[in-house]
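Quick one, T. Sequence first:
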Amino acid sequence: MTDIDVSRNQWDNLTHEIRNMIQCSAQSVRELSSRCLSINDLLLRLSAEKRMLDWVPPVANPKVRVDKMGDGHFGASRGNRLHRGTDYLASPGDPVFMTLKDAKVIREIRPYSDHPELSGVVVANAICTNILFYAEPNPDLIGESVPQTQIIGHVQDVRSKYGANMLPHVHSEKYIA
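Structure tokens:
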């Protein structure tokens, strides 16, 4: 081999390596670009989901229940378990409001077979489900889309089950879909 042949061979190897690097770089740029689009799509979706997660309390002037029967905040002790919701003080007959944006009144629920007078309502959108106990829903709204803050029912009196030591309230549990 001559010096020229070695140089040509080295040149060919070098140009081959440069072409591979350019192809790899182009592929990386395409992958990075598609990842950036995916990140943008994700951010747009998160923004839409955040809007759907914007939540308002189910009652006017919300205050968390604290009485002789215990605390109504999320995670409060219930003996061998924790409270899965938040209890918002309200008077029997007060309005109960739609808590979620872009949501439907899904169904009425009856949590206690021994107290059929107490009911609740399930409301949901694509992201979140909110279960409200001690709230008598308006039966005309079951299955309907309802704007956030519209009245969907009325507060019931929990004292029929728990006695005078528990203040009337609406119990609210939120779940992500």
